[in-house]
Amino acid sequence: MTTLIKQAYLVGADEAVTSANGTADVLIEAGKIVAIAPTLPNSFTNQDLAELDDIIEAQGQYLGSGLIDLYSQSGEPGFEARETYESIQQAAAAGGFTRVGLLPNTQPAVDSVGAIAAVKKANESSQSQLMPWAAITLEAAGKQLTELADLAAADCLGFSDGLPLADTALVRRLLEYAQPLQKPIALWPCDLQLSGSGVAREGVEALKLGLAGASAIAETTALAALLECVAEIATPVHIMRVSTARSVALIRRAKAEGLPISASIAWHHLIFDTGDLKSYDPTLRHDPPLGTAADREALIAGVAEGVIDAIAIDHSPYTYEEKTVAFDMAPPGAAGLELALPVLWHTFVESGQWSATQLWQALSQRPADCLGLDPHRLAVGSIAELTLFDPRIEWQATAEEMRSQASNTPWLNQTIQGRVVKTWI
Q: pLDDT digits over 324-374, tens only?
C-alpha cells in the first residue's frame, strides 16, 4: 500500500518539515514513512498520483505517532463475555492505540511462559498489538514470586500483578531479583488494610453521599514504603494508578533526589472527582477511588509538569449485569480505549490548558519511555505506526457503535466530539 496523507497537522514532528501553520503531507509506502513535506504533490507526476493506493484529505485533522496504553484489562482468559483479545484489539485501534499493555490478573493469571505465548498469538492479526505484563506472583495472589527470569526470556512486557502487593518484604525481594532482568516493573501502591472497604475518597463528599470512605493515606503510606525500597535497591519502578495530591508531591521529591521511577495515572482521574458521584453512577466506581477536586487539580498539574510521566487508560470491561448494580456493589473500573483521546482532547486541548503535543506525548512518547520501548516517531524512515484524529467529528457512544464488547462507561449513549479516523499499525 502507498498512501498520501494531505495537509494534516503533525503532532511531534520536526518543525522543519511542516508549513508555517504546522501542516504537511506524509507519504507512506510499504509500511514506512518515505516522505514528509509542507506539500508533496509538487514533486509528483500525474502518473505517480494515479499509482497511489489511497489519498487521504486530512485538512483539520491531527497526525501523530500511534498511542500506547501502559495497562488495561482483558476479559480473556476466563471472562470472555467481558472482552476478548480480538475485541480489545479492535477497541484499541478504534481509539488510536497501536499498542496496549495487558495486565495479567485474569483467570488463569498470565504467570507462565505458555500464558504469555497465548497473548502474543493474538498479535498475528493486523489489529493493535497486545503487550502482556507477566504476573509478579503466582496467580497474581501476592504470595509467591513467579519464575521471573523465564518470563523475561519469553519477552513479556514487564512485571506487574495489576493488584497491590501487601507484603513489603516481597516487594524488596522482587526488586532485588528483577534488577538484572532489566524489565519494567509496574506497582500499584495501596495499603489494603487502610483502604478497607472504601468505595469513595474519604472526605466531605463521601460523608454526604453515605459512601464508605477510603483514606488517601492508603496510597501515600504504601508509596512512601515503595520509594524507600527503590532508594535502597535502585531498581527502576513504574508507579501506576497515582490518584492523590500528596502522591504527586512525594513523586516530585523522589525524582528530584534522583530515584529511578516513573509514574502514571488512569485517565478518568483527570476528568472526574468525588463531586461527580452525586449520580451514584456505578461506572464512576474506580479503584483507587476518584479523588477530591484538589487531587484532580494536582494530577492535572503533575501531567503538565512531567512529574506524572504518562496517562494510562486502565480499560476495565464488565458486562451489563455486572456493572448495573448499586454503586458500592459495582466492580471497579470502566471501559475507555475508544473514548480517552477525544474526551481528553476536548477537556484539555480545546480549553487551552494543554497543547496538542502535551496530550499526545502523555499518551504516546512518554508511555513508550516508561516501558523502554522504541516509539515510532513521525519522521522519514520510521515505521508508519500512526494515528489520525479529527477533533471535529461528532458520534454517539452507543454499545452498537463502539468496538469493545463492554459499554460500562459514563459516556454511554452520549455525543462525543472527536474521533480517530485511521490507525496505522
A: 999 999 999 999 999 999 999 999 999 999 999 999 999 999 999 999 998
User: Domain 66-371 carries which CATH code?
Assistant: 3.20.20.140
Cα distance between residue 188 and residue 390, in whole Å: 34
Is this model's pTM higher than 0.90 or not? yes
Pick from 224, 241, 226: nearest CA to 311: 241
Q: Are 189 and 223 in contact (CB under 8 A)?
A: yes
- How long is the chain? 425
Residue in the block written with cell 510499504: 30
314 tagged catalytic: yes
Give residue 394's region: left, alpha or beta (phi > 0; psi -120 to 50).
beta
Ranges of each domain in the chain: 2-60, 66-371
**Average of pLDDT values for 11-29?**
89
* Tens of pLDDT, residues 225-257: 999 999 999 999 999 999 999 999 999 999 999
Annotated catalytic residue within 25, 295, 314, 390: 314
Mean pLDDT of 69-75: 97
Spatial CA neighbour of 161 closest among 223, 226, 103: 103
Q: State how far the Cα of 138 lies from the Cα of 109, in Å rounded to an integer.
A: 8
**292-304 residues labelled b (16+ CB within 10 A) or e (exposed):** beebbebbbebbb
